């Protein structure tokens, strides 16, 4: 992918441009209708822009795991360069160290909290010692992690049942400190080391290795974590990982390997993390990764949210062609999609696409002209229902995704359902 997907500094400029389009159209509205329009369409739209872009923040990852299980190596693999020093020395005291990871060419940042000695500092019955509890409390209070990543060496899964029991104590600690649930993710790392043939790699080429990974994954899910309900991440290749039922301490189990010349299943891990991060932490995460599939996934999420906002138009009693009110919303949506594809994050980018599908967004855009052009690509006539508004906006979003991510000009009507 290109350099920066979305330049957050340009959000204010985009909002101003979209406000100008709203203003040009709302001049024709009766005064009593402007309030509902602002409440139903404008506020949700600008709230979406703020949450996803202008108020975007670095994701915060808290790593757990015993020394030698590959936490630092996994961090380096996710980042794409060495940022964490590998230290196999067993810690004598628990500690938590946070460091910021910058991706300067992508306008993105992550915060990594690396805990050491938490599991090593347990009482004989497996409970967390007081000093380790204090370290966790401080880390939770100071950094407010978005997700806990518990890294376990594949060869040690059967020997660490007490560690998994400690996680329930940690989860309760999180509930008390933050008043909400934070997802825990179990990562079975160093899967290449399973069995007596470590050079048999990757598992896609060695079924016996794949079978060992699958058995380890099942053992952790059922025998240690007691989860009777799992959903395979990839139903065609069960080795990739599993989602666990919603009431469990862990949300998912993902096997990985960070062999320098043949890392494995990091794409699954990235996808699982993406699915569990709050919206405000997504932009920095996907831009740092620079992966087209993750940027496209975020684009689709924004498209769905904009379609839901558009559906609110049905609640406004409109004495005029209400289809025109969709234009500012759709312009902002297309600008976001274009920005995520590494095009300029601006109304001009949206105008390029809209012009390509037959809508000319000119200066001083008039209500009548907006209605006349939009009705060509959104069926249902000038007065649209909530269903038509939502489906039409969704279709425009999908067409924009094809245009910016695939370089294909597909008319929105093809996607209209």
Concise summary:
The protein is of the alpha/beta class. Helix content is 47%, strand content 12%. The longest helix is centred in the N-terminal third of the chain and has 24 residues, at 31-54.
In spatial order, strands of the major sheet run 2-3-1-4-5-8-7-6
Major beta-sheet overview: 8 strands, mixed
Average pLDDT, to the nearest integer? 84
Number of strands: 8
Estimated helix fraction: 40-55%
Proportion of residues in β-strands = 5-15%
Q: What is the quaternary state of this protein?
A: single chain
How would you sum up the global shape? elongated
Order of SSEs: HHEHEEHEHEHEEEHHHHHHH
**N→C terminal distance:** 31 Å
Describe this structure in words.
Helices cover 47% and strands 12% of the residues. It is of the alpha/beta class. The protein has an 8-stranded mixed beta sheet with strand order 2-3-1-4-5-8-7-6. Helix 5 links the parallel strand 4 and strand 5. Helix 1 (11-26) packs antiparallel against helix 10 (326-340), helix 9 (292-310) runs antiparallel to helix 10 (326-340) and helix 9 (292-310) runs antiparallel to helix 13. The model is unreliable at 363-368 (pLDDT under 50).
């Amino acid at each position: 992918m290109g350099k920066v997907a979305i330049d957050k500094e340009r959000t204010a400029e985009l909002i101003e441009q979209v406000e100008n389009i709203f203003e040009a159209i709302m001049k024709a509205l009766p005064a009593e209708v402007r309030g509902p329009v602002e409440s139903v369409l404008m506020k949700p739209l600008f709230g979406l822009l703020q949450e996803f872009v202008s108020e975007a923040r670095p994701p915060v990852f808290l790593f757990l795991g015993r020394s030698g299980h590959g936490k630092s190596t996994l961090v380096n693999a996710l980042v794409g360069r060495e940022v964490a020093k590998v230290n196999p020395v067993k810690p004598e005291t628990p500690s938590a160290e946070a460091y910021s990871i910058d991706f300067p060419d992508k306008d993105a940042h992550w915060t990594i909290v690396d805990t050491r000695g938490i599991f090593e500092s347990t009482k004989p019955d497996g409970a967390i010692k007081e000093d380790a509890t204090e370290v966790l409390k401080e880390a939770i209070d100071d950094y407010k992690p978005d997700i806990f990543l518990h890294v376990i060496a594949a060869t040690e899964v059967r020997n660490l049942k007490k560690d998994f029991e400690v996680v329930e104590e940690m989860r309760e600690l999180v509930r008390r400190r933050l008043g909400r649930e934070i997802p825990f993710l179990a990562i079975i790392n160093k899967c290449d080391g399973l069995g007596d043939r470590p050079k048999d790699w990757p598992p896609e080429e060695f079924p016996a290795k794949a079978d060992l990974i699958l058995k380890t994954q099942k053992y952790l899910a059922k025998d240690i974590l007691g989860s009777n309900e799992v959903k395979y991440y990839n139903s065609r290749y069960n080795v990739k990982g599993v989602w666990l039922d919603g009431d469990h301490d862990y949300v998912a189990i993902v096997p990985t390997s960070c062999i320098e010349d043949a890392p494995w299943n990091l794409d699954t891990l990235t996808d699982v993390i993406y699915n569990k991060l709050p919206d405000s932490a997504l932009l920095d995460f996907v831009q740092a990764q620079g992966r087209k599939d993750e940027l496209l996934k975020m684009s689709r999420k924004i498209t769905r949210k904009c379609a839901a906002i558009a559906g609110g138009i049905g609640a406004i009693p409109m004495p005029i062609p209400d289809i025109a009110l969709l234009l500012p919303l759709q312009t902002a949506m297309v600008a976001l999609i274009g920005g995520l594809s590494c095009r300029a994050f601006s109304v001009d980018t949206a105008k390029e696409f809209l012009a390509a599908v037959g809508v000319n967004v000119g200066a001083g855009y008039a209500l009548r002209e907006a209605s006349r052009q939009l009705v060509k690509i959104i069926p249902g006539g000038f007065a649209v229902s909530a269903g038509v508004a939502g489906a039409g906006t969704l279709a425009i979003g999908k067409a924009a995704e094809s245009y910016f991510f695939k370089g294909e000009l597909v008319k929105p009507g093809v996607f209209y359902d």
